[in-house]
Design brief:
Helices cover 18% and strands 42% of the residues. With 237 residues, it is of the alpha+beta class. It is globular and about 50 Å long. 24% of the residues are buried.
């Protein structure tokens, strides 16, 4: 009873859940980070703020209107004691942000690190790192992460943290080699085209058949879809 009481007291208010998705070199040679979540049913104490990498040069907020239309617009970056923060303000319900960080200007080794910190407690925190298909010698700080393949052939490293306390720092890092400087969307498109050729060889019986064409989505609609799917999944759970 005492343990249950303390747990309830510590995590009353804050965030019901949060999700941080890190997508390296998908559309271009940079890293996109997608942060989303939902406030607790009892609300938050004060405003929401979370730490972001210092070299972020593009920050956008995703909002939904009453008709469920999606709006994306720039959002200011705040500097607090020499570090970059998103001061999201008073949040009630869902929130979502996209930011662009760490531009790579030449082929070679990639190193990235991110210190996660929220000023609100989080009951369930999910961290996802997308492993680029052209990467070699991929190493992640999340050694116990679940690894799964998405429908387009990319590996996703995912960890789940429970009862993540406010103002706690969680360091996430990864490294890999990209010797050609290629981006994921081009590599995946080449892989899909190769699969089409294997599945639909050039034979007399297949001349009149329409070949199957795959089109890879861009990360912006994927991010928006992630918000919707996360919300629906949480409601059903």
């Amino acid at each position: 009873f005492v343990t249950l009481f303390l747990s309830t007291a510590l995590f009353s208010g804050g965030l019901e859940y949060a999700r941080v998705s890190i997508v390296p070199e998908y559309e271009s040679n940079n890293i996109v980070i997608f942060v989303s979540g939902k406030t607790d049913s009892t609300g938050m104490e004060g405003d929401l703020a979370f730490l972001i990498p210092d070299n972020v040069d593009s920050l956008m907020q995703i909002t939904f209107d009453e008709k469920s239309d999606v709006e994306v617009h720039p959002f200011p970056i705040s500097t607090i004691q020499g570090k970059s923060w998103v001061k999201a303000g008073e949040i009630s319900g869902e929130f979502a942000f996209m930011l662009v960080s760490e531009h790579f200007h030449a082929p070679g080794k990639r190193d990235f690190s991110y210190d996660l910190e929220f000023n609100q407690s989080i009951k369930a925190l999910s961290i996802e790192i997308q492993e680029p298909p052209m990467a070699s010698q991929f190493h992640s700080s999340e050694e116990n992460a679940e690894i799964e393949d998405d429908p387009h052939g990319q590996k996703i490293h995912r960890v789940h943290l429970h009862d993540f306390m406010a103002n706690t720092t969680k360091s996430v890092s990864f490294s890999y080699e990209n010797p050609t400087g290629e981006i994921s969307i081009n590599k995946l498109q080449t892989m899909l085209s190769t699969d089409d050729q294997i599945i639909s060889p050039s034979t007399p019986n297949s001349i009149n058949q329409i070949p199957i064409r795959h089109k890879l989505p861009l990360w912006q609609p994927l991010a928006v879809l992630g918000v919707v799917s996360l919300t629906v999944g949480w409601m059903f759970s």
